DNA sequence: CATGAATGAGGTTTCATTCAT
DNA sequence: TATGAATGAAACCTCATTCAT
């Protein structure tokens, strides 16, 4: 019976995504989700106290997955050269977003309330932390404000990725995106780090 | 006569924003907007055929304003040094977004449908074009793909700004934001431009 | 100024018909009628106290016209042979209905209330009376209950004509209609009259 | 379960008629119907997608019933003398119309749109077909164009009946109606059939 | 536990009518 | 007189949620 519940809940999650993609957030109804999941509305309400909690849970699942992917990528690159770090993280990030980009967009469209944003922020914090502790292990480099730097980095990456997705994302563009993101992040980190070094050991070390 | 209508429409626009801020996009109702505007629902429907068109118009007004601010900033900096360009544009962009950041967030929360995105994209295109033609006048610098570069730049800036806004944006953070955005953009443009020169006259020109 | 009013009212009547035909009775609005008439709603309300009275007047105009046509045809055939009477009246009736059959149908669709029906009934009474006094002059023929006979005759003709109109009325059908209506009316009147004669002078007069 | 729905739907149908009779077609609202049926509006909309479909279904039910009554009457009189045929059909028709004449009128007042007319036409076609095949079995009689003849017959009957109904139908009138309808139909059919015989065996057969 | 019929508050939209200009 | 912006009651319809079976 535990198993049956799991299956049902999983079906409801999947149905939520399906309906979101099919008809959009504003025309998503609990009945439609239940239908798609092959259960009755009553059943749906046995597992989720109300519509909001359903969407919230679905969103949570998704952002957690993306956050985990990035966390793993960060952990794997502790101690590497900064250029390697950047490439790995960009790759992980773009892959995670692109893999089911439609879901990403559909779910974020539901994330308008305070609770939803809190959820997203919490996951964001996790990735920032992961990235910060990775960057802290970069050889020969120091950063002033790693948490904020991570925020900048991810939100910039997120913004650019989102823009490309919303532009219709022709494959060629997606390919460019990765390269450009590497440049974007690399440029930024270099600037920030260089600034730091300049301030500290002004002029003594030629760049790169 | 004419004057009366103008006043009414303006009041409705203002009320739309007010309600959006007060109760959020999903609990905005045409009745509430009309009430806040001090007119009857019927009047609202004399100027907007339906709820969507009301929100769409409000969004359009807003994005057009932001786009215009950026366009002006770009036009004013044709021929300047790239660092000046970047600083000016970042300043204009952040100012425009921050000035009424709450509105920005509230309105974008309504921008989930295809039409809304088209609207935003159209405005984005305008800013990209303005930025591209500005960058084309930067002395001693060339770029491979100015349109895409502009897209990257703006969407990255937009993402970062949005993230800071959504994080609650303590004043200190906002101050950092500008500085970091300058670094972000500067770093990126340098990378892109450098890449270009490297490919063209590899090794012959030491980095300035 | 009297003239201007007449012109305006006439334009409103015409517009009413136009709108009725264009969008149907249920989507006819006073504003639309005013627009079509080239005046403002306010002006419309200067001549008609409310929407119902507008439709009522339009209906009245129409049924009066049809009634008059029939009345004239009846008066012209006083003293004629019955077959001539029938042919003339059928011709007048079908012509009047067909000439602007669309208007007929559109207007009758508005005739659902008690007042409207009263209007139509009043006009019907007039035609019945005209027909009755014509039939009273038919040579060698007597009828028991002329008013009711007239009612039967006209309503039967009306029903058949309407059915043909609503069936889409291919021209061939319309042509048949006249011939068949003559037979219908002729047959009926013969039966009624014959019945009468039979009862009175049973068997003595062979049928013409 | 199943039973509950059936009961509900039936209650809604009944309520539709009730409201139609009580307040008229134009003031019939879905809320009023639901109230009268003892259910909530939501329930009504679970069975009928919109107001029009509700009225359409009610109309369909009604015309189907009338059509069936006539069909049965026709089938029962195959091979009978024509006079018997006529009497039986007239009786069935008038009974069906009079039995719930108020409903008839109320429902037909809603039949203004194209779909409604199509519905009525379809039912009419059925009765025409039934009558045509009955008439084809009349001994010693032939008709040129049975379909059209049936159309004429029914629409004439319908028109006359309707007129009597709308005139307020004092009982005396209703009694007359039957007799007169028999004469009307009889006269018409004789004319049509006679015409035919004249054309075929001109002059050889004295009229029965 | 599952079902799905029933609920009804609440949202969007229409349109006859008024009245200040 | 003419105008047309404003009104607001009232209609249609949706959908999150409940509860008897």
TL;DR of this structure?
The structure is a homotetramer of 208-residue chains. Chain A has 208 residues and is mainly alpha-helical.
Word description of this protein:
The structure is a homotetramer of 208-residue chains. The first copy, chain A, contains nine helices and no strands. With 208 residues, chain A is mostly helical. The N and C termini of chain A lie far apart (61 Å). Chain A is elongated, with a radius of gyration of 20 Å. The longest helix of chain A is centred in the C-terminal third of the chain and has 31 residues, at 171-201. Chain A binds chain B through residues 24-26, 109, 112-113, 117, 120-121, 124, 145, 148-149, 151-152, 154-160, 162-164, 166-167, 173, 176, 180, 183-184, 186-192, 195, 207, and chain B through 24-26, 109, 112-113, 117, 121, 124, 145, 148-149, 151-152, 154-160, 162-164, 166-167, 173, 176, 180-181, 183-184, 186-192, 195, 207. Chain B binds a DNA duplex (21 and 21 nucleotides) through α1 and α3.
Q: Quick one: which chains have the greatest interface?
A: A-B, 41 and 41 residues
Distance between the termini of chain A: 61 Å
The succession of helices and strands of chain A, N to C, reads HHHHHHHHH
Number of helices of chain A: 9
Approximately how much beta-strand content do the residues of chain A carry?
Answer: under 5%
Unreliable parts of chain A: 195-208
Secondary structure: number of strands of chain A: 0
What about the largest sheet of chain A? none
Helix content of chain A: over 70%
């Amino acid at each position: 019976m535990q198993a049956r519940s799991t299956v049902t809940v999983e079906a409801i999650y999947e149905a939520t995504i399906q309906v979101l993609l099919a008809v959009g957030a504003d025309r998503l109804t609990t009945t439609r989700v239940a239908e798609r999941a092959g259960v009755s509305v009553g059943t749906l309400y046995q597992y989720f106290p109300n519509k909001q909690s359903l969407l919230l849970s679905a969103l949570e699942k998704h952002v957690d997955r993306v956050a985990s992917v990035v966390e793993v990528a960060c952990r794997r690159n502790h101690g590497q050269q900064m250029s390697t770090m950047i490439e790995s993280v960009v790759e992980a990030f773009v892959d995670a977003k692109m893999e089911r980009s439609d879901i990403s967009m559909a779910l974020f469209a539901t994330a308008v309330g305070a609770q939803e944003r809190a959820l997203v922020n919490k996951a964001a914090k996790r990735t920032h932390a992961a990235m910060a502790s990775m960057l802290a292990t970069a050889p020969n480099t120091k950063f002033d404000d790693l948490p904020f730097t991570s925020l900048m980095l991810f939100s910039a990456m997120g913004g650019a990725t989102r823009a490309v997705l919303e532009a219709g994302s022709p494959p060629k563009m997606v390919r460019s995106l990765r390269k450009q993101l590497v440049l974007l992040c690399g440029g930024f980190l270099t600037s920030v780090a260089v600034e730091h070094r300049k301030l500290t050991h002004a002029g003594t070390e030629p760049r790169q």
